[in-house]
Structure to design on (351 residues):
């Protein structure tokens, strides 16, 4: 089937602080319009749900227009609408789900409420073509940190592990604040770390002791790491020494990258999976990318990673998952489905 014969899927994403509208045919990306409210959260040092919801309301229609323009299509050309049903911020999700329902009704087209986390994995198909399942996905962003086993992108995903406390991006943001760097912390820590020695300070790797590995094999914990950085900074300040920001940033970044990649590679090996997908905003981190590439290569695992604009929250990833679901001929969601802020990853498509 040629690309133009494949159904045109509109995807809507509003689970956190990015309003995303994407257009996709099959695994071909036609448009990916995103409006971020990140600047509005800077002074609070993190995403404020009420602020995010209001920003989605303001951005949804202009972002939809931009996506249609970018793809050179009209609303009448859309064959199906996919929208993030969860997980995410309740009020934020509601904006996208309401918009998706309104469009589906107005256009008389089917609506698919889909899982945000699986959407991150589906985005990879827009970059490098159809995935050969099973794949292990390492999802790392400001809101989530998970290792997923995706047996079938349209129907079946399992949560192998997740963070027990802070998300990886959240840890970057909090540690940045501790050492006087601005929000969002990730890019600023990476910049500072470039001048530092990653081996100068060895920060703890959470849940990697033999005992922890038994109970929390693929889980993460970053709160101990954050506390260790806080203590280290406090001690230096109390001694009247200048905090070596570059070394602290490099040591912290190394600890995060080490534990993330170690556990994701372990999951591939133990589950006999030979493809890993790395996605989420923290996947922009150069050290994390390098270490993942290195360790995957050493273990004979193929690493797949979409470009940055497809790694962070966006509507095209939701359209891509919608396209996979439509291609499989799965029944659409009912028009009265509710968004679910804690939608389990096992539910790829809501009923
Ligand atoms: O996926 P994303 O854009 O948004 C949500 O979480 O919804 O991820 C944002 C997170 C922030 O916590 C930010 O600090 C982190 O990704 N981030 C990075 C880098 N760029 C963004 N973390 C580490 N290194 C980076 N270069
Ligand atoms: Zn996300």
């Amino acid at each position: 089937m040629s690309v133009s014969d494949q159904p045109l899927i509109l995807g809507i994403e509003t689970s956190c602080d990015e309003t995303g509208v994407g257009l996709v045919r099959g695994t071909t990306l036609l448009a990916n319009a995103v409006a971020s409210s990140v600047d509005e959260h800077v002074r609070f040092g993190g995403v404020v749900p009420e602020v995010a919801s209001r920003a989605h309301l303001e951005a949804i229609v202009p972002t939809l227009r931009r996506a249609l323009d970018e793809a050179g299509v009209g609303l009448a050309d859309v064959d199906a609408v996919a929208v993030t049903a969860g997980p995410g911020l309740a009020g934020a999700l509601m904006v996208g789900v309401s918009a998706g329902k309104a469009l589906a009704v107005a256009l008389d087209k089917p609506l698919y409420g889909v899982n945000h986390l699986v959407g991150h994995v589906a985005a990879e198909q827009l970059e490098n073509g159809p995935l050969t399942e099973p794949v292990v996905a390492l999802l790392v962003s400001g809101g989530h940190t998970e290792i997923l086993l995706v047996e079938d992108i349209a129907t079946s995903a399992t949560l192998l592990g997740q963070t027990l406390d802070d998300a990886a991006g959240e840890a970057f943001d909090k540690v940045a604040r501790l050492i006087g760097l601005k929000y969002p912390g990730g890019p600023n820590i990476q910049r500072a770390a470039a001048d530092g020695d990653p081996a100068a300070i060895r920060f703890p790797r959470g849940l990697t002791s033999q005992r922890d590995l038994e109970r929390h094999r693929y889980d993460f914990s970053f709160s101990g790491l954050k506390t260790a950085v806080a203590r280290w900074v406090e001690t230096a300040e109390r001694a009247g020494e200048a905090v070596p920001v570059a070394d602290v940033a490099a040591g912290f970044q190394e600890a995060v990258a080490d534990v993330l990649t170690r556990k994701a590679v372990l999951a591939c090996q133990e589950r006999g999976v030979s493809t890993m997908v790395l996605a989420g905003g923290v996947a922009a981190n150069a050290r994390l990318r390098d270490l993942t590439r290195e360790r995957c290569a050493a273990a004979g695992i193929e690493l797949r990673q979409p470009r940055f604009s497809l790694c962070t929250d966006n509507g095209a990833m939701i359209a891509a998952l919608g396209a996979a679901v439509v291609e499989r001929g799965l029944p659409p969601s009912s028009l009265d489905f509710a968004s679910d802020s804690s939608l389990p990853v096992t539910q790829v498509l809501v009923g």
Summary: The chain has a mean pLDDT of 96. The chain has two domains: 8-128+310-328, 136-305.
